[in-house]
UniProtKB/TrEMBL annotation:
Entry-linked Gene3D superfamilies: PUA domain, RNA methyltransferase domain (HRMD) like, Vaccinia Virus protein VP39
Gene name of this polypeptide: rlmI
Protein name: Ribosomal RNA large subunit methyltransferase I
SUPFAM superfamilies (alphabetical): PUA domain-like (SSF88697), S-adenosyl-L-methionine-dependent methyltransferases (SSF53335)
The organism's place on the tree of life at top rank: Bacteria
One Gene Ontology MF term: methyltransferase activity
Organism: Solibacillus isronensis B3W22
Length: 398
């Protein structure tokens, strides 16, 4: 039997939880003396023992667990999970029916009612990501629910919780048909090669779909495009397909070179006509400045934190500096696509970084577009803090 723990929550948290915030924070509950087992059901109550919500215990960077229901009698079982996944899939009916997009998010954790669990669709295959040991303890029921709710061709999974500080280099295959990788998926008519069984990432970040489309459709024609922190070069592919006169992709990871060649190739683009650099972005800025290179469009999409032998970079501290570096190699009238997935600050704060960078650099700017998470990355109503993605498309005015 699954363990059950009663937890008393403070009055501020009660208000938040009843307004629909699903996150259970450690300092808003009275923690029992005995430790709670991952995956235990949490019966959240007020001071006098009155029922507030039912959740599960699962340590994630943000909290100690997630609310699953606010109905006292509702059982957390296969039926519950099936209903949640079915509802989420119904919301994505347009994506399932789409002919030119075959990769999207089917289930977005807390936004679809089960924090710590995401499910992505890749051309019939499902990729399930588990963000805590607690949610992983529901694995059997959730897989039964997934198969009941949708037709799966094959299922793969990623364990994204700390397993004693190590990423387990496991076989990510779960059930059904085994995929042949790279698997080619479509996104607004662009092709992307993905591998569901090759380490922590798949080859494409689905949350940038609308930004890739914007870059292809509105900012690429006859432009030179620099894509920094380029990973597998997805933004470069979008730019090349949009008619860019040239793309330059810069990433530190050695694997980014073959992966970027692959993304170009599956789109019929001759990779030799594009520039791919395995290099530290900050060294590239100095290199470009020395060579007098300038670009019409610069994409900045750094990881929240990055550490190299020489330096550490944190978006919450160093974004203005990154933008200033980018400005030195952006043409007048050019466009900077500034992106961050750092959940620790919001869009308003991000815009202050942008403002500071342009002021310090001494340039004026105009915001052309703003993007946050796309439609399939559902976030809980009234709680914008779960909408971690922030992208601002900025025109440099001189
Ligand atoms: N923009 C990409 C995703 C970026 S993921 C996309 O849309 O697909 C972050 C990438 O930054 C990783 O591939 C990592 O290798 C790279 N990276 C981290 N620090 C770096 C640095 N200092 N210089 C260059 N690349 C870096």
């Amino acid at each position: 039997m699954r363990k059950k723990t009663e937890l008393q929550v403070d009055s501020k948290a009660i208000k938040d939880l009843t307004n629909g915030n699903p996150l259970i924070l450690k300092d808003t509950v009275v923690m029992p003396e005995a430790s709670i087992e991952e995956g235990s059901l949490l019966h959240l109550v007020d001071k006098s023992g009155g029922y507030i919500a039912t959740g599960y215990y699962g340590i994630q960077n943000k909290g100690i667990g997630w609310v699953l229901t606010r109905k006292e009698k509702e059982q957390i079982d296969v039926k519950f999970f099936t209903k949640k996944i079915r509802e989420a899939a119904e919301k994505r009916a347009d994506f399932f029916a789409s002919e030119d997009t075959t990769a999207f998010r089917v289930f977005n954790g807390e936004g679809d009612g089960i924090g710590g669990l995401t499910i992505d669709f890749f051309n019939g295959y499902y990729m399930v990501s588990w963000y805590s040991e607690g949610i992983y303890s529901f694995r059997t029921d959730i897989y039964e629910a997934l198969n009941a709710a949708v037709n799966t061709r094959g299922i793969y999974e990623k364990l994204r919780f700390d397993t004693n500080g190590q990423y387990i280099d496991q076989d990510d295959y779960v059930s059904g048909e085994k995929g042949e990788f790279p698997l080619i998926v479509q996104e607004n008519g662009m092709n992307f090669a993905v591998d569901l069984n090759d380490g922590a990432m798949t080859g494409i970040f689905l949350d940038q779909r609308n930004v890739r489309k914007a870059l292809r459709d509105r900012y690429s024609t006859d432009k030179t495009v620099l894509n920094t922190f380029s990973y597998t070069g997805a933004f470069s592919v979008a730019a090349a397909l949009g008619g860019a006169s040239g793309t330059t992709s810069v990433d530190l990871a050695k694997r980014s070179l073959p992966k970027t060649i692959e993304q170009f190739s599956v789109n019929g683009i001759d990779y030799e006509s594009q520039d791919i650099k395995v290099m530290n972005v900050f060294d590239y800025f100095s290199y470009a400045a020395r060579k007098g290179l300038k670009f019409d469009v610069v994409v900045l999409d750094p990881p929240s934190f990055a550490r190299t032998k020489k330096m550490t970079f944190s978006t919450s501290k160093d974004y203005p500096k990154l933008l200033k570096d980018a400005l030195t190699i952006t043409n007048d009238g050019g466009v900077i696509i500034a992106s961050t997935n750092n959940a620790s600050f919001n869009m308003k704060k991000f815009k202050t970084f942008i403002d500071k960078a342009f002021k310090d650099y001494g340039a004026r700017y105009k915001i052309l577009e703003e993007h946050q998470l796309p439609e399939d990355f559902t976030v809980p109503h009234n709680f914008p803090e779960f909408n971690y993605l922030k992208v601002v498309i900025i025109q440099v005015m001189n």
